[in-house]
Structures are given as structure tokens and as C-alpha cells.
Write a structure and sequence with these properties.
Blueprint: E1 2-6, E2 9-18, H1 23-35, E3 41-52, H2 54-69, E4 73-77, H3 82-89, H4 92-95, E5 97-99, H5 102-111
Parallel strand pairs: 2-3, 3-4, 4-5
Antiparallel strand pairs: 1-2
Helix pairs in contact: 1-2
Amino acid sequence: MRERRIENVLVVELDGEADLATVPRLRDGLLRALRGAPGATVVVDVDALAAIDDVALGVLVGVSGRQRATGGDVLLVCGEGRLRETLRLTRLDRALAVYPTATAAVAAAGTGVTPT
């Protein structure tokens, strides 16, 4: 997990595998990042993940809900491919805003534009 800022928007980049074995670190890392950004829109980039399981998807939904409770939001970055298909099949692409690039998500964070 790596954090960076693009145009003053926190972007959290995930890599490796997000599965039952890594969920505690994933959850703790995301919650720590979000604690530093209450009420803000945070971008979580999952493009570099090799795999993501249902438990890790649940973590993303959970942290998104927590961030929304503070008046903020979580936007996902996931280009085309297997992970995007997983989001579509689980219908999480309807529950979470998904953008093809971090740049597009950051632009939406500043304008409130929903993904296409």
C-alpha cells in the first residue's frame, strides 16, 4: 500500500493480493489513511492488484461507508481487465464509483462527476 497526493486528493495505491490472508493489513492501512482525511474524497487504486477476493471487496465497501459517514467518499480506480470484471459481476461497480485512471478519479473528486 502506498499513499500519494494528486492535486491535493489522497490516492491510496494497492498492489499484491487482497485476500483473506492480507485483509487485516488492508483494512488497517485503509482505515489509517482515511482517519487522516475525514470528510474528504479519497481515491483507492486497485489496478495493480493481482487478485482480490470477496472478503477484500467487503473491506472496500466497509471503508467506503465509513468515509461517507464523515461526509467524504471513496472512489476506486480500476481499468479494464479481470478486476473490473469482478466488480461488474459482483455489482460493486454500482455501489462504488469506479474510474479507469487515477487522473479521472481525482478530476471527479474535485467536481463531483460520476463515472461513465
